[in-house]
Amino acid sequence: MYYHIYKSEIGKIYLVSKGHALCGCYLENQKNFPKEILNYQKDDSLKIFIEATNWLERYFKGENVENNEISLEVNGTDFRRNVWNIIKGIPYANTVTYKQIADTIIKNNKLKSMSYQAVGSAVGYNPLLIFIPCHRVIRSDGDIKGYSAGNEIKKFLLNLECDNNKILL
To answer: What CATH number was assigned to the domain covering residues 2-61?
Structure first.
């Protein structure tokens, strides 16, 4: 496993890869930060890290970058991967609610119900912050609480994407 540190406006972002695809993107002080990253080999020259760094630089300049530009590899339960795939489909500068994600899963899997908290937990364990844009998931009442990297970071990312102050949290 390899890591690279990208210094951003929101702090140090740790990019993680097995060598070809990006499998982790973590803010230094976020909840669920995998401490084992520091045991990985630091490598600033991996092609995926160069691509991810360029993507992040464009993102932080306010560009609408596509999630599919970077090769991603996610590990997690089927349920979590299902939630993360739904999140990857949230358009730039838009938000969806935990309820909307749960309703999509209910419909797609012909279920009777689903816990919004289960969806929230899966969102919280997203291993690829920003690349899988979990900051675009909000509560039904519009509240942004509960972001694993902190609510101020979530507010920053949402406002960055909405340069015409569409969100203004």
So the answer is: 3.30.160.70
CA distance linking residue 53 with residue 56, whole number of Å: 5
Q: The domain at 78-164 falls in which architecture?
A: Orthogonal Bundle (1.10)
Write the pLDDT tens digit of every residue in 47-80.
999 999 999 999 999 888 887 789 999 999 999 9
Tens of pLDDT along 142-160? 888 888 899 999 999 999 9
Pure H helices in 10-113: 47-60, 78-88, 98-109
Cβ contact 127:17 at 8 Å: no
Task: Indicate the pTM of the whole model.
Answer: 0.91
Instruction: Give the residue from 87, 62, 91, 57 showing the smallest Cα distance to 72.
Output: 87
The residues annotated as belonging to the active site are 134
